[in-house]
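Sync notes, pocket subgroup
Present: LS, DG
LS reminded everyone that the earlier model was apo-only. Rerun requested with 2'-monophosphoadenosine-5'-diphosphate included. Inputs:
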Amino acid sequence: MTDRYAVVGNPVEHSRSPAIHAMFAAQTGQDLSYERLLAPLDGLAPALRAFAAAGARGCNITVPFKFDAFALAARRTERAALAGAVNTLRFDAEGWVGDNTDGAGLVNDIQRNAGRALAGRRVLLVGAGGAAAGVLGSLIAAAPAGITVVNRTLDKAQALVNSHAHLGIPLAAATLADAPAAQDIVVNATSTSLAGAAAPVDARVLAPGALALDMMYGPQAQGFLDWAAAHGAQPRDGLGMLVEQAAEAFFFWRGLRPETAPVLAAIRAELGAAP
Ligand code: ATR
């Protein structure tokens, strides 16, 4: 029987996840379907229960439900616990298991697709909301020299750093204005790109040839990408992270690792997006 999965969100109609997972399934010969499921803003739990009761095996969770999904999981992976959010659920017979594959997706995109090792590098994480919290633990695990989290609201950056302080690499929190200069890898995890804005930090944060990655993709990321290119950095959007987090979820469900490069190329061609 075909195993059912879905991406659950609100809104969810623009999600690329069904196309990505369809390619993974075809490539690995897995008999599964993957759909979009729109859940009411105040009704994630009943929507998930109905989906699971219909025989579904798991789902991805997107905006705005990653915290609700965390609460609904009976068990959580270590990285989901650290992130405080769940983007992947597996409906095991013994209970729902929650994982968070966003951080691994980001790290794999930076290291494999963009070809930038994180070890020993200076990393700047811009933002301290849910998107930043979802990736900080995985960035730390890649052993950079240090990570500075900068945010408009300093308290939130400090809280995020405090919750990860035991993980053994130097972490610092600062305001956007106090962002350190000459960082090797700059990751924009704020929602400012939704407004089509350039980066919320000064260009001095970029070391020559830095990688500057926005977790968004499509037109929303363009302001940041233009800013990065104009200041000599290598711009990168969030499409690679999207495909890599999907591959991690696919592995969590199916125990198989799909090839991501051809899928990323196909999705990029479909979107007609810039590199
Ligand atoms: P997400 O789940 O996308 O991370 P979020 O948790 O609401 O959404 O976090 C949004 C992030 O974008 C925060 O870091 C927020 O800064 P504050 O914590 O100070 O609110 C940041 N952000 C949103 N609008 C911003 C703006 N105009 N300038 C700078 N940072 C902004």
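DG: The CA atoms of residues 63 and 115 lie 29 Å apart.
LS: The pocket of 2'-monophosphoadenosine-5'-diphosphate is lined by residues 127-131, 151-153, 156, 190-192, 200 (CB under 6 Å).
Action: DG to write up.
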